[in-house]
Amino acid sequence: MILIIDMCYEKDSLSKEEFVRPIIDIVKESHGYEVIHFTEHTEEHLEKATHIIMSGSALMDHTTLSHIEMFGWLKTINKPTLAICAGIQTLTKFFGGDTFPQLNLGMAHVMVKKTDPLFGDEKEFDAFELHTIGITCPSDFDVLAKADDRIQVIKHKDRPLYGFLFHPEARNPDILKRFLEL
Description:
Helix content: 10-25%
Strand order of the largest sheet: 2-1-3-4-9-8-7-5-6
CATH superfamily: Class I glutamine amidotransferase (GATase) domain
Number of strands: 9
Mean pLDDT: 94
Radius of gyration: 15 Å
Distance between the termini: 13 Å
Largest sheet: 9 strands, mixed
Number of helices: 6
Strand content: 25-35%
C-alpha cells in the first residue's frame, strides 16, 4: 500500500485537489493507496505502507515547517519515501538543513548530477516548480539534480529517502512510477 501524506495546511482543504489528487491519479493506476493528513499519521499507517509520498502544498502554505516535531518517523523510516515541495522543505529542516526565501514558478531545466533509478536514462529534463522556499542539502543527503544553482532533488546517503523541490506529479509522472518500483 502506498501511503500519501497530505502536507496541505488543513485536512480536505481545496489545495488537496491541486497537490494530492494528481499523485493519487498516478498511483491508483497500479497500486493500492491511502491518503492521510500529516497531522493524522500513526505508526500503523507507516507499518502498512510499502512506499510513502509526502505531497506538496500551496505556494504560501508553510504550515509543516512549524510542525517539524510531527515528522519524527523520518529519523528511522527505511521504506522508499518521496517528499515533494513542502515535503522536501520539511525533510530538509528535520535533518538539519536550511530553508530560505526563493520564488520559482514555472518550468525549470533540471540537470542530473548523480545517476539514480528514479531518473531512468535521463540526464536532463524539464520540470514544473511552484515554491517560495529553497533548500540547502542536509549533511546526510546527496544532491542528485539541480536547475541552475537551485537544488531540485536530494537523496539520503544510506536510506531510500528522496526529496524533490519540483512537482513530478505535474509534468514527470514517469519519475513517480519509477519510485513506486523501488
